[in-house]
Design goal:
Layout (H helix, E strand, L loop, with lengths): L8 E5 L4 H12 L3 E6 L2 H14 L18 E5 L5 H15 L4 E4 L14 H26 L4 E6 L12 H23 L4 E8 L5 H4 L25 H12 L10 E4 L9
Parallel strand pairs: 1-2, 1-4, 2-3, 4-5, 5-6, 6-7
Helix pairs in contact: 1-7, 3-4, 4-5
Length: 271
């Protein structure tokens, strides 16, 4: 039995933690060859060793040795806000396995700050890591996928359209992700490229990044007002990874330029 992304080549940024880690594992389980990047080099190298052993055989029966150097999973350290790093990573990926079929721009940071308390330094850093990186990653992916097509998924947030006063810069960065995605999807359609570009907009996710903003708060209350929104709960990374898998796979071939919400019907309720 083959997987849902059997023998496809995938690249996932921010793959050493949270949603990225869950996504890499799921893509590997569904038959892809996965390169993942992160600034946490120690965690990335450790995970590469673990996953190389765990996924030594693809769902279709292919052995890791048949997948080229490094088996079915590879890690590279990458600063996603660096154009030079994007050039290097794409060159190394193509040399190892050929051009990617799937690119998931997942890396991001979260820094609290309302319009009064937020610093311009934090604003610039968030825009670099969360928005500029998606511009660079989408650009690199389109160039690499022009010959045979592929799927690009950019990680956004409900904060791209729903105001959250304590995270002004973060919301601005994720709104930029949505705009970059829509522009890239239209460009690919007009250029008759077989490349789909979509964005995913989750609400609270139970990851170390969000936990750091509210230490000790249970998952069911993370980022939610228990009075106004008693059904609120932070979703698990694996739940978001399953949506990313769908958007990356051929199962979503009719979806392009879309903002997919994984937000538990938060529209109209608010956090």
């Amino acid at each position: 039995m083959t997987g849902r992304v059997q023998d496809k080549v995938a690249l996932v940024t921010g793959g050493a933690g949270g949603v990225g880690q869950a996504t890499v594992r799921l893509l590997l389980a569904e038959g892809a060859r996965v390169a993942f990047t992160d600034v946490d080099e120690a965690a990335g190298q450790r995970l590469q060793v673990e996953w190389s052993a765990e996924f030594a055989e693809a769902p279709g029966g292919a052995q890791a040795a048949d997948q080229g150097p490094g088996g079915r999973v590879r890690f590279w350290r990458q600063d996603v806000a660096s154009a030079e790093d994007w050039t290097r990573v794409m060159a190394e990926l193509e040399q190892a396995w050929g051009p990617p079929d799937i690119v998931i721009n997942n890396a991001g940071i979260l820094i609290a700050g309302d319009i009064e308390s937020g610093s311009v330094e934090d604003f610039r850093r968030i825009m670099q890591v969360n928005a500029e990186s998606v511009f660079l990653g989408t650009q690199a992916a389109v160039r690499a996928m022009k010959a045979r097509g592929g799927s690009i998924v950019n990680m956004a947030s409900v904060s791209s359209w729903m105001p959250i006063d304590g995270y002004a810069a973060y919301g601005a960065s994720k709104a930029a992700v949505g705009a970059i995605t829509r522009s890239a999807a239209l460009h690919c359609r007009k250029q008759k490229l077989r490349i789909r570009v979509n964005s995913l907009h989750p609400d609270g996710i139970w990851t170390p990044m969000t936990q750091s903003q509210a230490p000790g708060v249970p998952a069911k209350f993370m980022l939610f007002d228990p009075v106004k929104n008693p059904a609120g709960r932070a979703c698990l990374p694996e739940q978001i990874a399953s949506v990313l898998l769908f958007l990356a796979s051929d199962e979503s071939s009719a979806i392009n330029g879309a903002e997919i919400r994984a937000d538990g019907a938060i529209l109209g309720v608010g956090l």
